[in-house]
Design a protein that fits this description.
The structure is a homodimer. In chain A, the strands form two sheets. In chain A, strands 1-2-6-5-4-3-7-8-9 form a nine-stranded mixed β-sheet, with helices on both faces. In chain A, helix 7 packs across helix 13. Helices cover 46% and strands 10% of the residues of chain A. Chain A is an alpha/beta fold. In chain A, 52% of the residues are buried. Chain A folds into three domains: 128 residues, no CATH class; 190 residues, Rossmann fold, CATH 3.40.50; 62 residues, Winged helix-like DNA-binding domain superfamily/Winged helix DNA-binding domain (Arc Repressor Mutant, subunit A, Orthogonal Bundle). The first copy, chain A, has 20 helices and eleven strands. In chain A, helix 12 links the parallel strand 5 and strand 6. Chains A and B meet through helix 8, helix 10, helix 14, helix 15 and strand 9 of A and helix 8, helix 10, helix 14, helix 15 and strand 9 of B.
């Protein structure tokens, strides 16, 4: 603890401007000092640079509007403690200066923010503003930029029905099977069902929280969040320990929309938060997808409202294939589900099948890893891999082996029978 | 029977061209001689006139294409028997020369038919062609043109679910309550539920059949069709006794689409007949409305396909209010449900309430009729009517008394909460 220099001393060091550690420290301080979602603060940090911005705020010499938003927090400093606390729970602070920063995805927020007027000071305006985060607290093994590269948000009501949970879970599972990451809010109901569906497919899933990445909120989702942190990512703009204040959910929603290629709303009551996330995705130019339900269900009213809103241009979806038609890459994701041909498997040895089943869908892994998962020797793995590759079942990514993506097949266009 | 002159003699009479009876006889003959849905036949009848058309066909001197479609039926004649048979079951032949012919509604078919090429002779083409009927067999008390003036088609799968039947019945009931006629196909499932819902609201409903108006088809709907004939209308292009051949349903569907202001599909399997009716309505420029359902239900797959087809421009609907937004007259049907203010009723005498409840929604009726329905004297009716009128509860249509239409109220625009 004593080894960590005082914040102001660290920022004043000659190499401060260029040092990543200093920039990270400065951004860590900003995540606690300035409530995320403020255009004014974000612009100030962008223009001054994070280190200079913190120096100015600490000295009380930032522009009045910015200084006012930070208030007494300018005098406090928990940045070193926050970084230590994150480290203890296996988390880190990812900053725009890092390689794993999802710059492309968040670019939509940068563009949108440049069109925003300065904060009017009203909370309702601030929670709506499309502003990039100054940094992201991230807990989990994957590189953020990779994990969210091919991702879809699956969101919906906390007071979900069995129907909605079934659909959310099934959709997330199928998206996961095809190598897509499911992003959601870690809440009860649809969010939890979506995360669980993705985990069941052994696919990465991301929970974007409105509180610290070490908070167990909602309390009933503790085990789920722990599993997401082990196999996917838990992400937040707020520092460790931050409480899930109500308005933070609204600020958080823009991040779910921005990090993903599109947002699927599974169940939503009339004028609900899930609707808001969807509309935000629409404003960022991302596809808005809606799962319909019985018109007799209050939990589908919000979904149907979204489809009926022609200005929004939401698309009704009923399956993962429909979702991939909207967010997928042309020619790649329009393909039918990756069905490993039964006959191709039939000719395989027991070892070959175990190795095939051990291959991950996304990132390639080493033969050693395959051997460990398949429960056989590395030599055996190396013996069967050539046959599996010839059969088009696995492929070498340059760094490892994975399941070969589905063949490009043009799906037959369905048309209503003229009758 | 001997009083009815021979067809050819009737047609040859000097006043034949102008006489409505002769024209009706000629068109009756055509409904049996030429299968409906043929552009070639319809054009020939339009150009030659119905009486001359029949004379030419009987003499074998019609154009080859037309003569071929009629074939040996040119030599047969059941027109007088058909008219008698219709009369016996309380039906009549409504022809374009009649005041009650729904010329305006069917105009869309005339316009569409003028753009059609001559029949290629293939059944699939013929069943798709938008062609006006040469005449309509109609069974029931109302004037056809009045009954279908404000009408909506509610169609769907025969293999419906409890959900679909509930929604169809409820929708039809609410549309009926607001003075709209529900048109459907008299089939099992969604059709039957829609007819029943309308009847329960004491609103007129129209069953457009693919067989003779005196056929009990499907057999299980006998009592329902009987009730529709008593309180609404049973309509068909085919003469009495005609059998419900499979292709006739497809020909019939265009009529359901054309007679109504819009078509609501409640449940439809993938690539189903209900979808075809909806697409036909779309091609005629009529709004296509679709009730969504669980994505897990095979009976909603067709509905969702329709919503997803952007070219069709189908609108998702979940309530009668949504339907009326599409088909209603501006400023009239955008109003919220006609809720007779409870306070307005509270001040009324027992007799006044009974008279109010006796007032029909659509056509005005005489005080004598109101007295009969309300179970009181005409003098009492005449005593309470002025007060009811002053309270804005009833109105004089020029020919009778009816419930006053709902006040014009601009409904508050719903908007997603920014949160």
């Amino acid at each position: 603890m004593t080894a960590v220099p005082d914040l102001d001393a660290a920022l004043a060091a000659p190499a401060a401007e260029g040092g990543t550690a200093t920039v990270r420290r400065a951004r860590a301080w900003l995540t606690r000092a300035a409530e995320p979602g403020s255009v004014v603060v974000w612009r100030f940090v962008e223009r001054a640079g994070p280190v200079a911005a913190v120096r100015l705020l600490r000295a009380g010499r930032a522009p009045d509007a910015v200084q006012a938003l930070v208030g007494v927090r300018a005098e406090q400093d928990a940045s070193a403690a926050d970084l230590r606390r994150a480290d203890r729970c296996g988390a880190r602070l990812v900053i725009p200066e890092d390689d794993e920063w999802p710059a492309l995805a968040l670019h939509a927020l940068t563009v949108a923010a440049s069109g925003e007027r300065a904060d009017s000071g009203e909370m309702s305006d601030r929670t709506k503003a499309p502003v990039p985060p100054v940094a992201l607290w991230v807990r989990g093994p994957g590189r953020l930029v990779d994990v969210v590269d091919r991702s879809v948000a699956v969101v919906g009501s906390r007071a979900s029905t069995a129907y909605g949970e079934h659909v959310a879970g099934d959709l997330a599972h199928r998206l996961g099977e095809r190598g897509w990451t499911v992003v959601s809010g870690g809440a009860y109901g649809i969010d939890a069902a979506a995360h669980r569906g993705a985990l069941a497919a052994q696919a990465p899933t991301v929970a974007v929280l409105a509180c610290g990445i070490d908070r167990v909120y909602p309390s009933g989702n503790g085990a789920l969040l722990e599993r997401i942190a082990q196999e996917g990512l838990v992400v937040s703009e707020w520092p460790p320990g931050a409480a899930p204040h109500r308005h933070r959910f609204l600020v958080r929603n823009r991040l779910i929309a921005a990090l993903t290629r599109g947002t699927v709303v599974v169940e939503a009551a009339a004028r609900s938060g899930a609707q808001a996330t969807a509309r935000r995705a629409g404003r960022l130019g991302r596809p808005v997808m809606v799962v319909p339900g019985p018109v007799t269900s209050a939990m589908s009213v919000g979904c149907h409202e979204l489809v009926r809103d022609r200005a929004l241009g939401a698309v009704l979806v009923g399956s993962a294939a429909h979702v991939l038609e909207e967010v997928g890459r042309l020619g790649e994701d329009l393909a039918p589900p990756p069905e490993v041909a039964t006959d191709a498997r039939e000719g395989l040895s027991d070892i070959a099948i175990r190795v095939l089943d051990a291959c991950p869908v996304r990132r390639g892994v080493s033969p050693e890893r395959l051997a460990a998962v398949a429960g056989c020797g590395v030599v055996q793995v190396l013996q069967v891999l050539p046959a599996l590759e010839l059969a088009g079942l696995v492929e070498w990514t340059g760094t490892g082996w994975r399941v070969a993506p589905p063949q490009r097949v043009t799906p037959p266009r369905k048309e209503g029978r003229p009758s």
